[in-house]
Amino acid sequence: xxxxxxxxxxxxxxxxxxxxxxxxxxxxxxxxxxxxxxxxxxxxxxxxxxxxxxxxxxxxxxxxxxxxxxxxxxxxxxxxxxxxxxxxxxxxxxxxxxxxxxxxxxxxxxxxxxxxxxxxxxxxxxxxxxxxxxxxxxxxxxxxxxxxxxxxxxxxxxxxxxxxxxxxxxxxxxxxxxxxxxxxxxxxxxxxxxxxxxxxxxxxxxxxxxxxxxxxxxxxxxxxxxxxxxxxxxxxxxxxxxxxxxxxxxxxxxx
Length: 255
Prior knowledge:
Elements (H helix, E strand, L loop, with lengths): L1 H51 L2 H8 L1 H7 L6 H25 L2 H45 L4 H23 L5 H25 L1 H11 L19 H4 L3 H11 L1
Helix pairs in contact: 1-4, 2-5, 4-5, 5-6, 7-8
């Protein structure tokens, strides 16, 4: 009998562990079900709230929706925010469920992923408003340059827009901790190289082109052949009437 009890002891311990684990599993499944319902409701509320404040208009005008559609996505930026918030709630429910089951390693991994998802949301917000602001500045530069008669207004507007976009992308990547100091140093090196190349081009071989371009942008209103005006307001006869000595020397040379 004692031998039978010793053989059945591992089975009893296993059944005891199963009996202690089943309530935890049921509680975890209940938490996941509640988290799923909360995630669906939160996603619906986020999408409706963003569309109510016309956030989708900002993303359309900034070009982010067009970028997603070119990449093959069947949703816009507003729906992307809803999906991200949905997965944040799901990850929170998974963390609570696995923590209740005693799976600490899985909980730590999901915790790291959950910390990264809000950064993605902030980076998308930076890109949305930054690209919209870049487009607004580009259009403002084009309108102003057309108003003052600059011929290359479109090129200047695109240059201003792309310059702002570069800074916006760098800020978004810094928020995601991607690149960091490497991207900043690379951007400074490229910017310094471009400035040096432009300076050399203008200083060595592009002086005439730069003068012509500046003259086309800001034409001078001064006419050199007009008679000079003296300080008292009368024409300066010394600048318009030739000297008598100069006339006599010219007549002697003719003879």
